[in-house]
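FAQ: What does a ligand-bound record look like?

Like this one, built around zinc ion:
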Amino acid sequence: MKPSPRPRRVRPVLSLVAAAVLAFSAPALLTPSVLQAQALPNLGGTDGEELSPLMERRLGEQVMNNIRRDRDYVGDPIVLDYLNQAGGVLLSSSPEARGDAGYDFMFFAVRDPSLNAFALPGGFIGVHTGLILASQSESELASVLAHEIGHVSQRHIARMIGNQRQDALLPLAGLLLAVLAARTSPDLSAAAMMGGTGLAAQRQLSFGRDAEREADRIGLNLLRGSGFEVNGMVAFFGRLEAAGRSRSSSAPSYLRTHPLTTERIADIEARIRNMPYRQRVDSLEFSLVKARARVLQDDTVQGWRDAKVFFTEQLQQGVRAQVMGAHYGLAMIALRQKDVARAGTLLEALHADVARETLMPSSPALVSMDIEYSLVTGKAEQALALATEGRNRFPLSRALTMQYAESLLAAGKKEAAAAFLRDQSQLYRQDAGVQRALARVYAEQGKQALQHLALAEYYFLSGALPFALEQLRIARTSPDASFYDQAIIDARERELQAAWQEMMAQTKKR
Ligand SMILES: [Zn+2]
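The answer part, i.e. the structure of the complex:
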């Protein structure tokens, strides 16, 4: 398929954040030889100079706060659920997955057609939508996730940036703030962007040969332990390598961050020679998530037109898994274009496809679209029944959990929706989406003080402190703010003010 004829969308924050991390760690990254000599002194043990796991996590969280605000961050809960579910399967397969530091992991997607995946400090692993689309099996995609897990668990990133003085880490928040400020000044950000794309592209965190080999070894163990096909890694890396050799404009950027040599592929082949061959049937969810990623990757009019052409070709080719993906993708576009009748027909076709499959159980993505369809056609009770059943079947799905709350609200059960979301906010304290949904329910209930309190938490969790403080001020002046609410607002304001002042102090230090 030809790329759509539109200007390449610039991605300021992502490249600038990468640049910021790099600027911070520049001395160790100047030359590959320095990098190997200093940052990866001994790959097995600890040398006391690496970044502490706590600092690494804080650094990663700061970078993530900025990424989450970028328009190219894919906040789509179905895609997030899928990546984290697949990552979770890999992580639970072996105690070595989380490393000695016992990392927590979070997988996310970035809207970008190029083939790449990357690990940030602290266990945050990003995958480009282009890489999801290029993976021909679930095992191929899992092999990339597994390899990135290896980089984190073996502390390659911590070592790479860890040779800096620990106290030099603190000003990073300030640096990131400066980067964001630069965004509002066109001249500055244009200059920064040129520096960002040129420099960051060349100096993206790139690992040495030993680190790559070690990440491959861990990755293969995780793949094998969790029932994926180990050949997936060879197949995918082989294709990436071939694409890199072709020197076309679509050469995978993955190769820059993860130097891939024929030697490395030979190493992987040698390792899997003694592993038993295993064939694995891809889940229905994989086909649907791939179709979803295609629609999300380019949500312009031209992008959807291209996606429709692609899906139509898939229907003509008639491969079962791809036909299901195509029906799903076309239904998704129809829903977004408010062509409800067409969406209904396509969903019916998809259900007929699925009914013919014996090996494939249902999938959260399918249930989620059924709920969405019920909601747009005004069948709130049906949506609620589907969401209730879906949550029973897929209790870990965040997408279905949020749709359950949405269905409660649509069915007029405002009190139940508020209570459910309050419970969720206790269970998932870092989930900004829960607070946003809670604010919406309070708004429908006409509870102004609580609405703005929830919005304050939403902005706080999204890393936008000034907006959070503004919402607290609005909450305070709300006519329905009780004495009890005022006490909560006061306490929260003191905490957020302190956090803000700490951040500003760090900016000045630079
Ligand atoms: Zn790598």
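Follow-up question: can I read anything off the structure? Yes, for example: The pocket of zinc ion is lined by residues 147, 151, 207, 212, 215, 258 (CB under 6 Å).
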